[in-house]
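Final report, closing paragraph on structural work. Over the funding period we assembled a curated collection of sequence-structure pairs, and we close with a single example.
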Amino acid sequence: MADTKKLKKTVGKSAVRNTIQISAGDRIYYAIVNVLLGVFTIIVLMPLLNVLASSFSSPEAVNYGWVLFWPVDFSLEGYEAVFEYKGLWQAYGNTFFYAIVGTALNITMTMVCAYPMARKNLPGRKWITWLFMFTMYFGGGTIPNYVLVRSLGMMDTRAAMIIPGAMSVYNMIIARTFINNIPSELEEAAKVDGCTDTRFFLQMVLPLSGTVIAVLSLYYAVGHWNDYFTAFIYLKNPSKYPLQIILREILMLNAFDSEAAGALADELMNNQSLQDLLKYGLIVISSAPILILYPFVKKYFMKGVMIGAA
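Its predicted structure, as stored:
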């Protein structure tokens, strides 16, 4: 009995020693990872902090390059110029419209397509899947898409921003993978009770797919918010421009619409410092919704990665 107790103590001490050694190694590993992540975070934050500080600084401080990561001669002139620039708010409204309506259509098309693709008894399921996969790797290109949109009469319409990209095959595969994990016994029990396929999809599949719908909604919404090329090709009327087109004209082309600028038109044309402040303010205002939203939805992005890997 005594020998057994000594053996247990010896094994216990050895296990504790090994645990301490492993824990020490883990601490070193995590310390290195945290340092690297901290360095990368600082590198990413530096330009953002510079833009934010410049937007709250005086025109003279920005013009002479005195601003680094903290406002110099605190001023709100840049934001005053932004709020008086009428074209910005029209573009903001257009972007919200494209993001909300486009995302609603995207989710509808994706889920309606993913549900039958998840059914193992679907005739020709493998061939249909192959056709979807084919479109992920091969496409007609920009010119055929342009000809198609023009032939459908959607040029310079809001539909051109929404309908051509109504569904992402990659996102549909994510949704299909999630629906595949719903127990088949649930469907069998519903069918015994006389439930139709449509009712099962609407009342059972969709409520159970809340997580994947949230993930895909975020993917689609961010895509619509950042979409620039679609509007650049298909839209000609400035009243339908999204925010990204307005940012391009101001930030890259240094072009200001006198009608959209309103009372600031003359001052913007002659004051380079005010133009710079307006640019910094526009960057902050346009990025704010995504920056504010991301901390609350980060966990859904992580879930989306795990769902896609399933």
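Residues 156 and 236 are 6 Å apart (CA to CA). The chain is about 75% helix and 0% strand. We thank the funder for supporting this effort.
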